[in-house]
Amino acid sequence: MALDLFKEKGVPLDRQKFTWKDLTRRTFSKLDDDAFTRVRVILMNGIESESVRFSHACARMNRELRESLALIRRVEQHQQTLVNWMNPPNQNPLETTLGYEQTAIEVTASVAQHEPDPYLAQTYRFGMLEDFDHLYRYSALYDRLTGRDPNYIIQSYTDIIPGRPTVLEHRHPLDDVRRSYDKRAADAISKLNALTIVSAENQVHTYYMNIGPMFTDPVARMLYAEIASIEEQHVTQYESLCDPDESWVEKWLLHEANEVYNYYSCLHYESNPVLKDVWQRFLDYELGHLHYVMGLFQQLEGRDPAEVLPRELPEPIGYDTHREFVRKVLRDEEGLSAKGTGFVPRAEEHERTLRYREMINSEGSPSDIASAGYRWRPGTELSDEAERVGTVAEGRIQ
Ligand SMILES: [Fe+2]
Ligand SMILES: [Fe+2]
Ligand SMILES: [Fe+2]
Ligand SMILES: [Fe+2]
Predict the structure, then answer these.
(1) How far apart are the CA of 286 and the centre of ligand 1, in A?
(2) Domain extent at residue 136
(3) Buried-most residue among 108, 228, 264, 378 (CB within 10 A)?
(4) What is the pLDDT of residue 2?
(5) What's the gap in Å between 55 CA and the centre of ligand 2?
(6) Would you say residue 7 lies in a domain?
(7) For residue 251, what is the enclosing H or E element?
């Protein structure tokens, strides 16, 4: 049965407690857990990271909210820690990167299919094909640096083939800002979808900006710089879907509702019993946050939260392979680009985007260099070619 946001009150704020041991518990297993467990951990880290980021921005602009925000923000910080510390230490940054792109592809594919507004759905399909290409380019880098098969991490749920080529994803900033939904007319699910995807993309961007300079391989350094730039475009694109006329408290209410919705979705699909307990506990914590902010919304704006929130949560985000959907979108929409807020065939791109792309790619394209000659085949690390070029003999396979 769907969860009733107004009846379920969750755990009150003063009973939401953590210890250092609780925050840094045993991790999931890189190899034994399902790849979608990693996807959920990656997404929920992004959702919590957005809640902290939003909370700081809001505190800087709203004197009367500063204390309430500080109280809840401490919990969000520790939720993010517990979730992010579930990543195992033997999962290296490039493997985590493969997980980030898989998250972007599969979660955006689910959102695109559940989005009732055709323009918003088109925007999600558009961005999804770009992250799909990133998975292919990073897989090529993984093969180049380790000789390993990326399915070691992504477990064959997601195809490893080119999408809309990264070299063509660079657009002028004015071709990345989209039309926002209308806060009065949009379905609640449209508001939650936009928040989920912008949270994921913002975290991907932050992650690449942090780990990119840690690589010694020059191609890896360039590839992270290039793809981080696209993730910044994606943040610009997805945040522009949210109506800027929502009040700060209204936005806060939506953030808490989205956290509830996302933990509820994770709980629905989780196969790892430890994580299942975490998702249940945090679902209850978020219901506590939501009811706290509902009170503020009533008190400060004199409005009924039911104007903004759905009574029951929508269908959960689908943590499953979307291979057929992604293939169809790739066939039908790979050739699209964006011009202003609209989507157009690549032949009709704006002059400013063509000029920008030519300039930024004028000394070569890292994504093309990283993937030159790369074609994924099952068991790449055990292939004849790998032996022939000596990657196995050199002991690069551990
Ligand atoms: Fe949270
Ligand atoms: Fe990406
Ligand atoms: Fe992205
Ligand atoms: Fe929260």
Answers:
(1) 6
(2) 13-388
(3) 108
(4) 83
(5) 25
(6) no
(7) helix 248-269
Q: For residue 311, give the DSSP letter.
A: S
In the reported structure, the alpha carbon of residue 101 is separated from the centroid of ligand 2 by a whole-number distance in angstroms of 5
pLDDT band at residue 114 under the 50/70/90 scheme: very high
Q: Which amino acid is at 196?
A: T
Tokens representing 9 are 């009150």
**314: in domain:** yes
Domain count along the chain? 1
Question: How far away, in angstroms, is 194 Cα from ligand 3 center?
Answer: 13
Quote the ligand 4 centre to 104 CA distance (angstroms): 22
Among residues 263, 261, 94, the alpha carbon closest in space to that of 193 is found at 261
If phi > 0 it is left, if psi is from -120 to 50 it is alpha, else beta; for residue 126 that is alpha
Q: Distance, CA 311 to ligand 3 centroid (Å)?
A: 31
Cα(311) to centroid of ligand 2, in Å? 34
Tokens of 379: 């068991």
Distance 117 CA to ligand 1 centre (A): 27
Q: Among candidates 28, 190, 195, 24, which has minimal Cα distance to 99?
A: 28
Ligand 3 center from residue 163 Cα (angstroms)? 13
* Residue 345 bridge partners (DSSP): 336
Calculate mean pLDDT across residues 278-286. 98
pLDDT of residue 384: 52
DSSP characters over 223-250: HHHHHHHHHHHHHHHHHTTS-TTS-HHH
Going from the Cα of 96 to the center of ligand 2, the distance in angstroms, rounded, reads 12
What's the gap in Å between 299 CA and the centre of ligand 4?
19
Strand partners, 144: none
Residue-wise pLDDT for 288-324, tens only, equals: 999 999 999 999 999 999 999 998 899 999 999 999 9
> Residue 397: inside a domain, yes or no?
no
**Residue 1 within a domain:** no
What's the 106 CA to ligand 4 centre distance in angstroms?
A: 24
- What is the reported pLDDT for 392? 39
Q: Which residue has the tokens 């180049």?
A: 144
Distance 303 CA to ligand 1 centre (A): 24
DSSP class of residue 11? S
